């Protein structure tokens, strides 16, 4: 979907708001997927010579938790805004994905915002304890080092002393 920024500058009368379902399921994201269409809302308000553009979306991310390795799904809200000046679309170094004719590609904008905003380490929950280093099961588990029969690597024994001090 394209939003004609050049036209908004030339015929602006009142705020322009667009709500669209953006399908990003075929995109290659780093460490996660967006399996469902994203409901994206873009609003443009002209104030003097500057167009204030805001993007709001709450995509559902599908990923493998970095601590416990379980598959997880989580809503990741993105709220961002931009200040656009007349003619910014002609700048080859513009931060937004403009076409040469002054149109803004909303799909590309949503994709690039997700790549920038989503952290590189995703957890299923903020309090995820991860995997037990002894048995490999998801914490909390029933084992302890003493009862598991697994010997501690003597090279790492010094680290255990840090925990007891």
Kindly state the number of beta strands.
9
Low-confidence stretches: none
Please state the overall shape, judged from the principal axes of the Cα atoms.
elongated
Instruction: Give the N-terminus to C-terminus distance in angstroms.
Output: 60 Å
Mean pLDDT value:
86
The spatial strand order of the largest sheet comes to: 2-4-5-8
Number of helices: 4
Counted up, domains total 2
- Can you write the helix and strand succession as a string? EHEEEEEEEEHHH
Largest sheet: 4 strands, antiparallel
Give helix % range.
10-25%
Can you offer a commentary on this structure?
This protein is α+β, with helices and mostly antiparallel strands and 165 residues long. It folds into 2 domains: 2-117, no CATH class; 131-165, no CATH class. The protein is built from 4 helices and 9 strands. The strands form 3 sheets. Strands 2-4-5-8 form a 4-stranded antiparallel β-sheet, covered by helices on one side. It has a 3-stranded antiparallel β-sheet with strand order 3-6-7, with no helix packed on it.
Brief summary of the model shown:
The protein is α+β, with helices and mostly antiparallel strands and 165 residues long. It is built from 4 helices and 9 strands. Helices cover 19% and strands 31% of the residues.
Keywords, separated by commas or semicolons:
165 residues; alpha+beta; 2 domains; three-stranded antiparallel β-sheet; 31% strand; elongated
């Amino acid at each position: 979907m394209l939003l004609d920024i050049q036209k908004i500058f030339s015929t602006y009368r009142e705020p322009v708001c667009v709500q669209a379902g953006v399908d990003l399921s075929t995109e290659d994201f780093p460490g996660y997927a967006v399996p469902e269409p994203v409901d994206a809302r873009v609003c443009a308000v002209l104030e003097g010579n500057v167009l204030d553009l805001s993007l709001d979306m709450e995509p559902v991310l599908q990923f493998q938790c970095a601590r416990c390795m379980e598959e997880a799904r989580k809503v990741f809200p993105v709220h961002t805004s931009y200040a656009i000046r007349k003619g910014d679309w002609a700048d080859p170094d513009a931060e937004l994905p403009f076409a040469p004719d002054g149109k803004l590609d909303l799909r590309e904008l949503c994709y690039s915002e997700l790549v920038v905003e989503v952290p590189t380490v995703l957890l299923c929950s903020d309090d995820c304890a991860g995997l037990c280093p002894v048995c490999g099961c998801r914490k909390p588990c029933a084992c302890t080092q003493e009862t598991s029969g697994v010997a501690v690597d003597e090279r790492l024994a010094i680290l255990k002393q840090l925990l007891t001090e």
